Amino acid sequence: MSRQPILQQYYTRGRQGIFRSNEGYDTVAKSTGLDNSFIKKTLHPFCVYDAPRLLQERGENDLSLYPEARVSFRAESGELVVGRSVFVGADFTGQRNTFFSHNYVIPAERRDDFIKEPAKIFGLRAFAQEHANTAGKELPMLAELPFQTSSVKDQRQWLRHIGIDERIFKQLLYAVMMSLSSKRKVYISLDGEVGAAAADARQLLELLYSCLPYEMRRHFGFLTYCNEPQSKKHIHVMFVEKGSIRPGAGFTEKDYVFDLAHERILQVDWQEGAHSYLDFAWEYVNEPRVLASFHDFCEEVLAGADTTFMLRLATYYELCALYLIEKGRLAVYEQNRAGIWQVLQHFLSQDGLVNKSRLLQLRDALFREETESLTNKKFPASEIISQMLKAYSAIPKERISTELVTFMMNVLLKGKTARQSGYVAEVYQHLSNDQELFGFLMRSVFGYKQVVKPLFEDYLADRLASFSKISQVLQEIEFWTETAPPALRNLFFMTATREKVISLFARERQKLQAALTIHDFFESQDGVSGFADELLDELDKSLLKQIALDSLSWDDFGKIMTLLEEKPQTFTGELDLESRQKLAHISQMAILTENREVPLPEQFFRQWDEKEMAIQQKLIVNLLGRPLEPDSFPLVALVFYRAELQGQDSFAYSDLLRFVGDNGGEEVLYSFIQWSMTQRMFFTGKYISPGYRQALKGLLLENRGRRLRDKEWKKRWFSVRHADFRKLLEEVRSETSSPLMKLFRGKSTALLSVIILLAAGAVGSFFLFMPDAVPVAPATPGGGETAEQPYPTEPVEFVPVYQLMLEPQIRPLHRTNEF
């Protein structure tokens, strides 16, 4: 497939152009394949020329004295534009001075041919400076462009000739490279006559251009002459006429300014010191092949990288150091070993880079250098170890190097031998950051018995000593489970981790929760059964030893039994007496939490002596809710059971009733008594047990039977369906009644006869002895007034005689006497 041709365009003042039919500035000729919109939008803004002020003022007619303006930039569509504008004197009218612009448009596919050989741009000699109308408006498309290389051999000497020393050159190169990654322009003014200055500008630009990496050249734009500073799109470096840079004008206050004609350098934030790439460029400024070799290296390493990354000046500082080391300049490595490893791993970890072969070769070379240094008892710095390990882990799926593992084992052993404990700890930390590499190393350690203690057991002991939380130890166990499973079969590991867990467990306030957390952790781990069983047995023994039973809830007893229910008999046999007793109490409490029906007290406490039974009852009291609920009544019964008492009266009944009343109130007390009437434990046959009967009676007799004086409560008490209890209520009512009520209840028939006789006598006496008993006067004939009534108009309430006897406080009837 043939390469795409190079296209041309002419621009000047003529009688007519391609885009205008009258006289004026316009494109006067172009190649057929050149798009009109591209010409107008991209090329026309650069078809301009302002003659030097000094030459204009003196009316200079020698055209050779006028500088040419070389321009080059990358178009938005990717093409490379290389052009020239020159002053050509009078136009076709002979009355106006004009200029002529000639631009070449190089296809994007061929752009690298030019940027990789700067002479094709700066040595281009095929520019026209006039176009005859008779030649037509069509320009040929070209396959190649003629050029010639620079004749300057000693660039340093030539730079000194135009007033540029090493420092200024580095500042210039720095500013040019920085302009590509920022919005700052570079304006340069050279000393000398304007024409000579423009020629020097082209030569200087070619030198600077040859120092730019290829990716920077692809985006670089320049103009070798302009009468004064201007901000033009696509242009990064502009050479301007001497005297056109005016300090304080404000236009260039944020840009890089090199007014070399007046020995002024402004806004260049360049610091003295080592600048690896700038130093390299100055060192090889007379050896373009070395510079090209470096640029080829960068091009290979950066293939696939992001453009922004490739336009960073720092990128080439870093690559320059790697390139020099690759070429055998080990002094660069010796000056900053850790920094070189950091740069290397930084590039190796770039996912976008598609060709890392030279970087990997360099990594292996540096590793060999470190191995040799270690043989000579020169320890690599901790930071070198860190960056080295990152460099080896930067390539996904790369096989772990056995040489690297061996090297790291030797570093650790030599560090321990030299008693550099801090250094060794840092190396371990760096290793553990790469779990895969660390696991490979530790599995290798277990393969050599003589290094297990110094490289594994001592390391583990140091780590465990630094832990202050159980969670840290569990994380450590999980780490080794995933990283190096053989560690779990190591006797030291088993013993040390177990002892650490137990010691930290002793400090825990919430011991049950801590134990549950540890159990849950090991249940979630695979392949730890043998190791875990022994540790958990020790943990549970410690739990029983240290836990306070009276601090547990009902739910806690169930949780503890969940932990202990599958323990073998050997576990119980290894407990001390106190722990076995606690386990028994926990089992009893668990029975209460698991069973809906509470067993009878004699069954529940049958295996306990008085002391142990008292402990159980205290636990139950602590676990009862406040206020009491009806579903806790069976538990209350357990609390006040007394095994030393005989028969059915094996309860502290009075204490039981008092406890229920104090912790539940009157309503709960009533419910408890109502519930107790349905429980066999409170009865002897069909009758309430004597002790309980006596306690109930004492309760009901309190405050002269106040519980039976209230009408509503009296109904509720008498509604309890048990004959013996009703009988008890009658007894209490009888004993708390007044003497007269007792008399009525004792001799009811005789007393009734007396009451009737007394009532009859009282009525007769009332009517017989009433002094004011007169008949009612009839109405006055014809009168308007009614006679006075001698008796009260309101009705008289009838009060039975027996009530008058029982309640003599009833008030008498009052009579009104009038005179």
UniProtKB/TrEMBL annotation:
Pfam families: GAP1-M, GAP1-N2. Keywords: Membrane, Transmembrane, Transmembrane helix. The chain crosses the membrane at residues 750-770. Residues 6-144 form the GTPase-associated protein 1 N-terminal domain. InterPro entries: GAP1-M (IPR045401), GAP1-N2 (IPR045402). Residues 159-261 form the GTPase-associated protein 1 middle domain. It comes from the Bacteria. This is Glycosyltransferase. It comes from Brevibacillus choshinensis.
